[in-house]
Specification:
The complex is a heterodimer. Chain A has nine helices and 21 strands. In chain A, 24% of the residues lie in helices and 29% in strands. In chain B, strands 1-2-3-4-5-6-7-11 form an eight-stranded parallel β-barrel, surrounded by five helices. The chains are: A alpha/beta, B alpha/beta.
């Protein structure tokens, strides 16, 4: 059930000893966030990893991570990496670029394409559609449990990051290095002036810059809900961290997956201490971002363009209206809802009376207390 | 060989934050305008178009042989899709000329519920031929390439595939691959990819280093400006050149669209006649673009992978040489209704965007009562010492 990322023999040893069900191996050339700079050629590096893994994992328990966004000039590198992995018996390929789907299928006839969380599928429909093209998908960290519960029939194809850093941005630019041809890598912490104290991490490599949140995703406390959705794999990502984090994380989730009692608070505290970052569920339980979207979706009739106290209001109509005069629902610019009685509507050009409006018309009406510029008038009177 | 038939003039695609900006864009030479509806565009804080306004916009475009594309380019959550299907049924009756999408679920809904062409948004971060092929397989007719893809790469794509390509040529840029950033989701509870981006990339970041903390705008991407790359775009067969900025002012739209219109026309004339565009011409185009608020310019990824010079680390404020003070709305007899951005007084001299100066002789409020001065945000009637037009945009030099 538990899969984790490994880029070294040490990682693999920990994963094997702690009871991971599978590993995702990678090379820095084709990984957005390997947190290492692999010197060996891809084939040799992978060969050594697979050899080290033999003690614990069969090739079917090993996936190859190739999660860069691929420019056409990179395709040959990807082909070499995919071929090298396939030559070692690996059949699962983890990607975020849908362009690699056909490439991998051409090179490896029985390949399992595994999409990573950055693919941008956050709805049931999107996930179902993508799984018609691929065999496996790690759901995005922004997908809440409500959506996952609707996908129970596909749970054998879905997995979830239960532990580890949250990638919040991937750029082709090298923010720290600044060059485009350099091979150096940088792992730095920085804080946003608007949110001092939140330490964000940046991994700047020849593939670009990956930026990580100030807290880690941790679903240890959500274990009952996690079990309820029954996803087939739990992904632990401890790249760029001390081996003790990987060890502690795998052991904790393994125990829970096996029904072994675990002092969850102690485990979370330990991970907090080891990583130096808060451990939180992120959007797993709910995702309430963008809740004010609904406020834009009503049937807008007009907006208030100008207000002169005690004298007049100017309305710009965004829908045709027959019968302008009367009571209308209004949302003020402060977000408060009220009712406005429109009286004495006149054309702005010559102030002649009119009781209907077309899209784009400006009408002058009598002033009403409480109506502010940029207030919105809705159809439901 | 007749170059005039070999190379097509690319479409100039402009932002339409609202109906007025759409009209400005068409008037200044845009071939097409992209707009957001009230459902599911990426610029939630733009005015956006009601269904009625969309209908007006599409009718207007059809009457003058132009096009309107509707953006549906967020990454949808379940609730969004429920709302979207109802919206698509309305849009099918309006018949915009294309939808821009980045989410496979949204693409499926567009296919299932409408017959309107599908364009893939830059939010989908399409960077290679094979990714385009995947989108074509689900019905895409055009792909807006990721802003990290060079014109040279686009040329190879055009040689390999029968697909329309669209490239951003001007405007603000995400520092990251568009669609690969969720900073706002976690920092502000607003979804970067559903219209709620708070532009955290523009903030100052303090990096902890061995020599102490260093603060700078480490990911504040300079604005894209591709005047010098237009010819390469034409020769590469790029179908559409896109200007960013649905949230930006009418001044920005007018200035950017008219400048690129002139520049594209100059490039096509140059190709047809074999007479290179002069440096003076290029400088003039660049000066026009520099005059309106910007974060300094770079060519982004149009020619090469963007390096440190594409970031404005020491951002000290927007660059501009003019400030908008009022925009015309409509004429009544010899009076122009203006929407004021600043205080104007009788006797003030203001400049039109085309450099003509006019002096304000009279001002009236909306009840046609004389006033001495205006208020920012207010609507006023204006008279001047020269003829006015509803299309006027007034600026003052800084």
């Amino acid at each position: 059930m538990i899969w984790t990322f490994c880029n070294s023999n040490d990682d693999i040893g920990i994963a094997g000893r702690q009871g991971a069900a599978g590993i995702i191996i990678e090379h820095s050339r084709t990984s957005v966030r390997s947190f290492v700079s692999n010197r060996l050629p891809v084939s040799e590096h992978l060969s050594r990893l697979v050899e080290a893994a033999r003690q614990w994992f069969s090739p079917s328990q090993i996936a190859f991570n190739c999660d860069v966004l691929v420019h056409d000039s990179d395709i040959d590198d990807c082909i070499r990496a995919i071929d090298a992995a396939a030559h070692l018996g690996i059949r699962e390929f983890r990607i975020q670029d849908i362009g690699l789907i056909s490439l991998i299928n051409e090179r490896v006839s029985d390949a399992v394409i595994w999409l990573n969380p950055e693919i941008g599928c956050h709805s049931e429909t999107s996930i179902r559609m993508m799984l018609k093209r691929c065999q496996r998908l790690t759901v995005g960290n922004e997908v809440p449990i409500d959506t996952l519960l609707k996908l129970s029939d596909l749970s054998h194809q879905l997995d979830i990051q239960v532990q580890g850093p949250i990638l919040i941005q991937y750029s082709y630019r090298r923010y720290i290095d600044g060059t485009v041809g350099g091979h150096d890598t940088y792992h730095v912490s920085a804080s946003d002036s608007e949110y001092p104290g939140r330490k964000l991490r940046f991994w700047d490599s020849p593939n670009g810059t990956a930026m990580f949140l100030y807290f880690d995703r941790c679903l240890l406390r959500e274990i009952d809900r996690l079990r309820a959705i029954g996803l087939s794999r739990w992904i632990i990502d401890c790249r760029g961290q001390d081996n003790s984090v990987l060890s502690r994380a795998i052991r904790g989730y393994r125990d829970l997956s096996l029904g072994i009692d675990l002092d969850i608070k102690a485990a979370v505290d330990e991970l907090t201490q080891l990583t130096g970052r808060p451990q939180r569920p992120g959007f797993f339980n709910s995702n309430n971002t963008d809740q004010d979207r609904a406020s834009q979706s009503g049937d807008t009739v007009a907006v208030v363009r100008d207000v002169v106290k005690d004298r007049y209001i100017v309305l710009e109509f965004r829908a045709p209206v027959v019968g302008v005069s009367g009571k209308w629902s209004v949302r003020t610019s402060k977000g408060e809802y009220t009712v406005m009685e429109i009286e004495n509507p006149r054309r702005i050009a010559d102030l002649s009376e009119i009781n209907q409006a077309s899209v784009g018309d400006l009408l002058v009406v009598d002033w009403k207390k409480g109506i502010t510029p940029k207030s919105t008038i809705f159809a439901n009177r | 060989m007749n170059l005039s038939t070999q190379y097509a003039t690319p479409e100039l695609l402009a932002p339409g934050g609202n109906l007025q900006k759409l009209q400005v864009a068409f008037r200044c030479g845009a071939d097409a305008v992209y707009v957001g509806g009230t459902v599911f565009g990426l610029r939630k804080y733009a005015d956006n178009f009601t269904d009625h306004e969309l209908r007006v916009a599409v009718d207007m475009a059809n009457s003058i042989g132009r096009k309107v594309y509707v953006v549906l380019n967020g990454f949808a959550h379940d609730a969004d899709l429920t709302e979207l299907v109802a919206h698509l049924n309305v849009l099918q009756t309006i018949q915009p000329h294309a939808f821009l999408v980045s989410d496979w679920g949204v693409a499926k809904a567009v296919r299932d519920y409408t017959s309107i062409p599908l364009h893939v948004s830059t939010q989908a971060s399409v960077t290679n031929i094979r990714a385009i092929t995947e989108w074509i397989a689900i019905g895409a007719e055009r792909v807006v390439m990721a802003r990290e893809v060079s014109i040279d790469d686009c040329k190879k794509i055009k040689e390999a595939l029968n697909v329309e390509l669209e490239l951003f040529i001007h405007g603000s840029m995400c520092a990251s691959y568009s669609g690969k950033c969720v900073i706002s989701n976690y920092s502000a509870g607003r979804d970067s990819n559903r219209g709620g981006c708070v532009q955290s990339c523009r903030h100052t970041y303090t990096i902890e280093s061995d020599s102490g903390p260093v603060s700078s705008h480490i990911m504040n991407a300079k604005d894209l400006q591709g005047i010098r790359q237009i010819e390469a775009c034409v020769l590469a067969g790029i179908d559409s050149l896109k200007i960013e900025g649905r949230m930006k002012s009418q001044l920005y739209v007018a200035n950017a669209v008219s400048t690129y219109r002139d520049a594209i026309d100059a490039v096509m004339a140059s190709i047809h006649t074999g007479t290179p565009i002069t440096n003076d011409q290029v400088f003039r185009f660049e000066d026009r673009l520099k005059s309106v608020s910007n974060r300094q310019f770079s060519a982004g990824g149009l020619s090469t992978r963007p390096d440190a010079s594409s970031i404005n680390r020491e951002f000290g404020g927007y660059q501009k040489s003019v400030e908008i003070v009022a925009t015309g709305r409509s004429m009544h007899h010899n009076r122009l209704l203006i929407e004021c951005k600043d205080v104007l007084c009788v006797g003030d001299a203001v400049m039109r965007l085309n450099d003509q100066s006019v002096t304000i002789t009279h001002l009236f409020d909306c009840l046609h009562m004389p006033v001495d001065s205006t208020r920012p945000g207010g609507l006023f009637w204006m008279m001047s010492d020269s003829e006015l037009a509803s299309t006027d945009i007034f600026v003052v030099p800084l």
